[in-house]
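Journal club side-thread
Mid-discussion, someone asked how the predicted structure for our own chain would compare to the paper's figures. Pasting it here so we can look after the session.
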Amino acid sequence: MASRMTGFAALGLMAVLPLGVALGAQAAPPAAGPVAAVFPPWWPAARAFAAAGAAGPVARFGGVPFIVVVAAPDRARLRAAGAWLLLDPHAVGGCAPAHPGAA
C-alpha cells in the first residue's frame, strides 16, 4: 500500500511540475524596475517591509503581507535581506494599491 501511495505522489508531482515551471518562467523578475519579493510566510508584515526597504524603496505590499513590491536595483540585497523568490509583480497579479508613502 505504501508503494502505491508513493507512486501516486510521484505521478501527481510529474503532472504539476511542468505547470510550476511554466508559471515560474512567466513570472521571472524583469532585469530592471520593480520586483515582487517573496519573504518567509511566517514573517510579520513589518519585518518583510523593513527587509525590503533595506534593499530599495518599497512601492506596496502584494496580495499577502509577506510579498513586497520594491524598486531594488541590486537584487542580491533583497536575497541577502531574506527574500526567497523575486518575481515580476505584473505577472503574478494580486498586488495591493500603492503604499501611501511610496516613492
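Post-session note: The helical segments are 2-26, 45-53, 75-80, 89-92.
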